Amino acid sequence: MKTQFVKRVVAATIAAALPLAASAADKPKSLNVGMTTFLTGPASVFGVPARNAAEILVENINADGGINGVPVNISFIDEGAGAEALTSEYRRMVESGSVEVMMAAISSGNCQTLAPLAEDLQVPNLMWDCGTQRIFEENDYKYVFRTQANATPEMLATVLYLLKTTPDFKTIAVVNQDYAWGRDSWDIFRTALKAMKPDVEVVAEFFPKFGSPDFSTEISRLQALRPDVILSTSWGGDLDTFVQQASQRGLLNTSTFVLPLAESSLERLGSALTAGHIVGARGDHYFLHPDRRDDEDFQTFMQQYQDKTGEISVYPVFHASQAIAALKAAYEKAIEENGVDWPSEDQLLAALEGLTFQGLGREVTIREDNQGIEDQLLGVSVQTGDYPFATMENIMIFDGDELTTPVGQKSIDWVGTLDAGFVDSVTVDSYEN
Amino acid sequence: MTTKTHSTKAKASMKSPLTFLWVIGVLAVIAVPFTTPSIQLLFNFAMAKGLAVLGVTVLLRAGQVSFGHALYFGIAAYAGAFLMASMPAADFFVVLIVGVAGAVLAGLFVGLFVVRYRGIFFGMLNLAFSMIFWSILEKFYHYTGGADGIRFARPTVLGQVLTHGQFEMMLYYSVVVLMVVLGWFTQRWFASPIGQLFQTIKTNETRLEYLGISPRRALLSGYLLSAALCGVGGVMMGMAQGVVTPEYVWWVRSAEMVFIAVLGGAGSVHGAFLGALIYEVVRTYASVYAGDIWQMILGGFLLIIILFAPGGLIGILESLFRRGSGKEGARK
Amino acid sequence: MNLAIFLLALFDGVAYAALVFIVALGLTLIFGVMRILNVAHGSLYAIGAYATVSLTGYFLALGFAPVFAFPLMIVSAVLVGILIGGPLEYFLLRRIYDKSEVLQLLVTFAVFMILEDVQRLVWGTRPYFESSALQVLGNVSVFGVTYTAYQLILLPLIAVVLLLGMRFFLRHTITGKLITATTEDREAAQSIGVDADKVFLFTFVIGAVLAGLGGALASPTTSILPGMGADMIVLSFAVVATAGLGQIEGAALTALMIGLGRSFAVYLYPEISVLVPYLIMVLVLLVRPEGLFGSPAARKI
């Protein structure tokens, strides 16, 4: 067996040395990209819109002649098919040489599994949607980049918005899904809140199981406790069920809800989400984005998306657009900087460092630790009658740079060092709607 | 194609052309890392899963179905993961032994209780225990990592620190060896006196009692073997993925094991591995090329097998060979 | 823990138990008569919910009053029973009655997998929410806590009516007695002229209707989305096994224990609420190996 190892090592070394010999690659027939997304399971409420968006955006790029004349070809892997199918298919795609760049993933668990794998396989991987802040805080990566924010700025922006708009609340309760995101997001939120407003009392913490069909008991208890603020970072069907059940039983009239992911549920919640509750979007993602809604590219895409799906865009659509914009920008930057027809992998990786690009939201920059810096948009729900569902008013967009954990620090430690002064020190743009 | 050592093959079906096929199958599996490295990981997963399916197959020989055997798969994987998380330089073989020991201990604890039950109750109780363990993994996330599970670095192997490629190669051939050795062992165990008594539970349990033998003890011995086999599969799967999650214990995985056992050929040692391989390949490719309907394809596949080929894939293979060679097949 | 909180937990527990019971009732009926543990029951539950949401949405869009949501629930449930349950028994299950329990269960598991994808193909992945029925009935206030009348009053009421109705049907009507007789001894029943095939078909359709009804009744209170059937089926299995297979009264009692156990857990120690059904199951079977109401020789229906 030993000689076999040696043979493999030799072969791998030769293979690795080859691209170094040639400084640029030949222009391929097409740029093949693989994207992992949920096509089945509860998270397909995010995965399917993202796939639809990716298909539209790729078509648009190809209609414009592709990237430096090379058309883009995107294929999808279902994250809902289970971890084994996902990892083995991811590997197969990369090792059979059928893709040059991967985009993974939605689930934080999958990101944590695939990031080391991408590194081992030496394939550039754009993490396009998962929220976990741990990836770049616990490891250094050469091949893995993130084209959006992570849980820390998302939660921090939520706390800041809450403190700016509702500074006097005394009690808070939390109802989060019982899995990593629900637990981690509450850890960050609570730590930040305790640091900036230590006198708040946490009166109840519920972690109903993921996919719970019924929150009646939790709602009864919340009605008995009457907290000023109720936080829920839930999403998809869980969030819909919770808000609907709470709305039916009048809980929305007695407590202010803080829902950092509700932007993705606005259309489905319809009239159930009454006015006056805080809505977040995991970044500056909103189909009526105050900075972007008058831009032509934004309007064109929103129309294309609505024509194709019959729905309004939600944040995973924006995240998909950012990953694809990053891909295009990175190739174009690498081509220009090196004066080549098509970049080698190393040239592409170098271009991704410090890359600035713009998807459907504001510009995003990739920081030195490969973390994306993305601004954060929040607003308060309002039923204007223009749409059959709640939209946002009193929108604030926070500067992502100030909310992202500094390079080399751990989120929880850093967030714990903030104080009440932080609320007034951050850069924020306010809009009426 | 998978399975079997020379000795079992020789013993089980001396003259069958199938014997030849199994040899070729094992050789083909051995060659995979060199011929088609892109499916090496897929085969690795399939064989690890096949080991767990073998555990379920053992119980099927006694006519019992467990809907919760993912419990042992998961316990072993978590025992190994805890060890690796607390001792980063732990040795591969120590991890394997600790994981399997965990599965056997749990098997003894649960087994002493469930061997009193038969049929649906046996299946449901196993399900209940696995779901309890699942809930504990999800809830006590400060210790278990919750739904994210536990991630760990590669273990060392006999004191050597291996690279990613070397470790995968080592793991792959370890699982091949385990498959052949444990498959052979299980076949031998079925033929042993205790194995024979164990299988009598299916055909005539009262006869055991007339013989003055406790059916519960006979069932417990097979139960422990099945837990150990699931445990081996779980540890190998955990190490191949570098992560263990509560999904290892989720009821769908238990159902999947039974599914594969029946698909391969209920009660057949060869079938467990053949079934696992075919299942994994169908599932992976279906989810790639028919992402929206892969469950439907698998479900339809299973329906067809049960309705038209109740002997499973092994049954189909054997009847093909019987017909093809005109010889007496090696139905085991 | 004061009396008010005790009562609140009680109300929540009962409302939840009612829904679980309705689904488990169909499952245990089918098992009692046909000896098949039907995994596809979970899919029928989900499809019942989807059908209700679609039909209600359609009719309300036509301008019908929201109160029409109630008859539409029954329509959906019956449609599920006849259009899916009927063919399932007639074309598929009928062929496997001579096979082992495991194979029968796997066949229904295969059907479950197929129906999961069918749901996604028909209704997509987007969660639906349609609560007209619930809004019609309004809210009830107890100790300053608002409940929906639908959950607090209607669901438990329907559960009780179904329990009593099923008992009456099986013991005091000809069809019910035929079903009971076929369950006891299929061959003997056939020899005196009972058409066992017909009885099985009828039972399965009724069971499927009950699954659909469970989904229809759940639909106003919860998001309808892919995967909702899988959760329900595991819970129903726990109820049916704990109760004793085929035991209707047992299923009612077990559903109540699980519902109350869960809601009290949410008040006292929320972290264990998920564990409750399985803990109850293990504890009950430890003491009574055949389930709460089951006994090896007893009549199984």
From TrEMBL, chain A:
Transmembrane domains' residue ranges: none
Lineage top rank: taxon: Bacteria
Instruction: Provide the Leucine-binding protein domain boundaries.
Output: 31-375
Please name the InterPro entries in this protein's record.
BCAA_transport, Leu-bd, Peripla_BP_I
* Signal peptide as annotated in the record: 1-24
Could you provide one GO biological process annotation from this protein's UniProt record? amino acid transport
Keyword list, A-Z: Amino-acid transport, Signal, Transport
Similarity section: Belongs to the leucine-binding protein family.
The name on file for this protein is Amino acid/amide ABC transporter substrate-binding protein, HAAT family
Native organism:
Roseovarius pacificus
From TrEMBL, chain B:
| Molecular function GO terms recorded | branched-chain amino acid transmembrane transporter activity
Spell out the InterPro entries in the cross-references.
ABC_transp_permease, LivM-like
Pfam families, per this entry?
A: BPD_transp_2
Q: Which keywords appear in this protein's UniProt record, sorted alphabetically?
A: Cell membrane, Membrane, Transmembrane, Transmembrane helix
Gene Ontology cellular component? plasma membrane
Q: Does the keyword Transport apply?
A: no
- Which positions, given as ranges, span the membrane? 41-60, 67-86, 92-113, 120-137, 170-191, 218-237, 257-281, 293-317
Q: In its keyword annotation, does this UniProt entry include Cell wall biogenesis/degradation? A: no
Question: PANTHER family, from UniProt?
Answer: ABC TRANSPORTER ATP-BINDING PROTEIN (PTHR30482:SF17), HIGH-AFFINITY BRANCHED-CHAIN AMINO ACID TRANSPORT SYSTEM PERMEASE (PTHR30482)
Name recorded for this polypeptide: Amino acid/amide ABC transporter membrane protein 2, HAAT family
Lineage, broadest ranks: Bacteria, Pseudomonadati, Pseudomonadota, Alphaproteobacteria, Rhodobacterales
Automatic annotation (TrEMBL), chain C:
Record-annotated membrane-spanning stretches: 6-31, 43-62, 68-93, 105-123, 149-170, 199-218, 266-287
Membrane-protein topology:
Multi-pass membrane protein
Q: Name one GO molecular function term.
A: transmembrane transporter activity
User: Mainly localized where?
Assistant: membrane
Q: Name one GO biological process term.
A: amino acid transport
What GO cellular component is one of the record's annotations?
A: plasma membrane
Q: Which InterPro entries match?
A: ABC_transp_permease, BCAA_transport_permease
Give the family, as the similarity comment puts it: Belongs to the binding-protein-dependent transport system permease family. LivHM subfamily.
PANTHER family tied to this protein: ABC TRANSPORTER ATP-BINDING PROTEIN, BRANCHED-CHAIN AMINO ACID TRANSPORT SYSTEM PERMEASE PROTEIN LIVH
Q: What is this protein called?
A: Amino acid/amide ABC transporter membrane protein 1, HAAT family
Per the UniProt entry, what species is this protein from, by scientific name? Roseovarius pacificus
- Which lineage? Bacteria, Pseudomonadati, Pseudomonadota, Alphaproteobacteria, Rhodobacterales
